Amino acid sequence: MSVNSIKMNRRSFLGSAAAAAVFSSMPSAFAQETPIRVGGTLPLTGPLAGVGAIHKLAANVFVEQINAKGGILGRKVEFVLLDDQSLPANARTLYERLVTADKVDLLMGPYGTSSIIAAMGVAQRFKKLLIQSSLGDPSLAPYPLQFPSLPIGPEPHLTDSEVVLDAYTSLPNPPKTIAFITSKFPSALTIAKGGQEVAERRGIENVLSLEYEFGTKDFGAIANRIKAADSDLLWSGAIGMEAVQLLDAMSRIDYQPRNQFYLFPAPGPTAAHPKANGLTSLTWFEAQEPFLSYPGAQEFVTAYNNSAKAAGFPYPRTEYQAAVEFAAWQILAAAAEGAGKFDDAAMAAWLRSNTVETVVGPRTFEGKFNAGKQSTKLKQVQGNDWVTVWPTEFRPAEAKFLAP
């Protein structure tokens, strides 16, 4: 072989080696540019679809905003969303698919206690972080890698009703009797039982305790029982559209409770109901001060309201259902940025030791069930809109707690 031939072969080898080095580095470079895929389900159909649409829109607002800012750790976010049809069994199957078949990088929790518990079982099996926004009974969530955006504290079965009854006790004629009507939806049932305990401790007479199956549509017989009891305060563990259906049923028999509270109603249809003025519900965010002072809140409210109007939502205004979903995504992003990597265990460890600034206020995860401190408020329908009325420091300056 000639010297020139050897030189040519050497140059060819070096060129090939350089090319191989370049190409071998390209997948790593491209990997940095691929989106971070976050998988989850929501009830886009079924009895919880109205609330599911709110959570979907809030998630989309977050993804759009974070991607406009460059994503998380330099990677854009892609939300891989599936419809669980309001069925916990579907949620379990779909989260398994998201982890094993779709191979998403991170998980975001579904809506509703039963579906969250179902998803949590999958997350625990695969040791995945699970941020969730709507678990009503923290005692059902001992999994150490789950973190709630909803600041209900570790014992909402007691503290939620404490807030409600504190507010009503402040009225000129506080209730002396109470009726408990609740869905058997797990969190609603647990909170109702806790509410009965709180009412008894305060000396408020419980004149009716009634449970019904989740998904009930005919509330005629229940409305008659409520009218017969005629309590000073109706405590309803209604979920979604159940509140509207119960209001309709009471209207048909010409009955209006003197005071009425609903646990987790669909916000828009409930506020718009002609018999809703004065009824109350729980809240953790409304589009008013001081909530709007939380980091990112005003930007979120503007974007969400515009998107809700464009989508034709019946209540195109931001309230706590949208806010806690957005906050869940803020927590997920903060955990990744804080840990410096998309690693479930490292992100969970960072969350346990740090405070996350969210649109529902600062979130910490100390104590049982990673629940942190409770920050529950009471809101009231006033003129087809929701107004925070309790505690008083969260009440707008011009607002009052309407008495019957």
From TrEMBL:
Residues 1-31 form the signal peptide. PROSITE patterns: TAT. This is Amino acid ABC transporter substrate-binding protein. Keywords: Amino-acid transport, Plasmid, Signal, Transport. It comes from Rhizobium indicum. The keyword Transport applies. The keyword Signal applies. Belongs to the leucine-binding protein family. It comes from the Bacteria. Residues 35-382 form the Leucine-binding protein domain.
